[in-house]
């Protein structure tokens, strides 16, 4: 899901706001853990919605329990 050329770790910069990457600061930690999107519903209630990674994870879980 990460586009070729996206730096890893991915900078917390608006240039990558709509890109899947590896943004430092996941799991309520500021360092050492990474999240896939700069701003996602899984991170904050002010986000527009779920990022593509979360959407895939949610759909995969729905598929597991409904098939």
Walk me through what this model shows.
This protein has 67 residues and is mainly alpha-helical. The protein has one domain. It has 1 helix and 2 strands. It has one helix at 52-66, and strands spanning 23-24, 34-35. Strands 1-2 form a two-stranded antiparallel sheet. The longest helix is centred in the last third of the chain and has 15 residues, at 52-66. The model has no long low-confidence stretch (mean pLDDT 94).
Q: Which terms would index this structure?
A:
single chain, 67 residues, mainly alpha, 2 strands, metallopeptidase activity
How does the SSE layout of this entry go?
Elements: E1 23-24, E2 34-35, H1 52-66
Antiparallel strand pairs: 1-2
InterPro entries: MetalloPept_cat_dom_sf, Peptidase_M64_IgA
GO molecular function: metallopeptidase activity
Protein name: Peptidase M64 N-terminal domain-containing protein
Mean pLDDT: 94
Helix content: 10-25%
Low-pLDDT runs of 5+ residues are none
Taken together, the total number of domains comes to 1
Structural class: mainly alpha
Please count the helical segments: 1
Query: What letter string, H or E per element, gives the SSE order?
Result: EEH
Biggest sheet statistics: 2 strands, antiparallel
GO molecular function: metallopeptidase activity
Protein name: Peptidase M64 N-terminal domain-containing protein
Organism: bioreactor metagenome
Pfam families: Peptidase_M64 (PF09471)
Question: Would you kindly provide a brief summary of this structure?
Answer:
This is Peptidase M64 N-terminal domain-containing protein. The chain has 67 residues and is mainly α.
